[in-house]
Amino acid sequence: MVPENGPEAVTAAISFPPRGKRLVSCAPAQGESLHRKTAVLVVAIAMGIGGCASASGTSSSEQKESFEKSPLLAEVLAIFPGIFVHGLGNLYAGNGDRAQELMGEEGLGLGALGVATGLGFLAAESHRHADHSHGAEEILGRIEEASGFLGVAGFAGFGAVYFFDSWIRDMIEAPGAARERNRQIKRAYDESPAKAADPNAATITSATTPSPPRTPPAPPEGSR
Questions:
Q1: Which among 6, 41, 113, 204 is most buried, taking Cβ atoms within 10 Å?
Q2: What is the pLDDT of residues 38-53, one digit of tens each?
Q3: What total number of domains does the chain contain?
Q4: What is the residue range of 126's domain?
């Protein structure tokens, strides 16, 4: 409601500060508080960055150790259960190509031993048949028996050589493969820890790096 005296009464009701005196403002106090909060935030960020850098160094070292292979464990795996699956020592050491070669040798040896076993059964059957035969039939049975046992000896020898050779080679090569892998990991971390931590870093970088723009060929002088 408007007072009875009109607008003058309304103006008089509002108190204005006298001239020459400044109003007390809380802006400086708010500014000091803002500066204090900013300083605390900067210190917290700096401490966080330092902690992340320290953790990154520690994690890189731990990651390097996790990538390294134990020559002793490679030897143990090559002995057992490596006797059943040849190449486990090299496979653990990171030499997958050599492990596949040794597994292939083992498979070839086992295949030859399987053929020798089958020929052995046939030779035994020829021997039994020849014992109950007479004349020319007995002679043919003895020939089949002899050829069967010769085949058994040949395939068994071939299979045994390949089987035990692949197993022994895995036991000999696995520790050296583990030490070589450790040297490669150390060399890679010395050159670039980030690249060593991510083997696909180089591939990703090269794939994402844009190729430089191609400059169009200059037109012939006669066409200008």
A1: 113
A2: 544 544 554 454 444 4
A3: 1
A4: 88-197
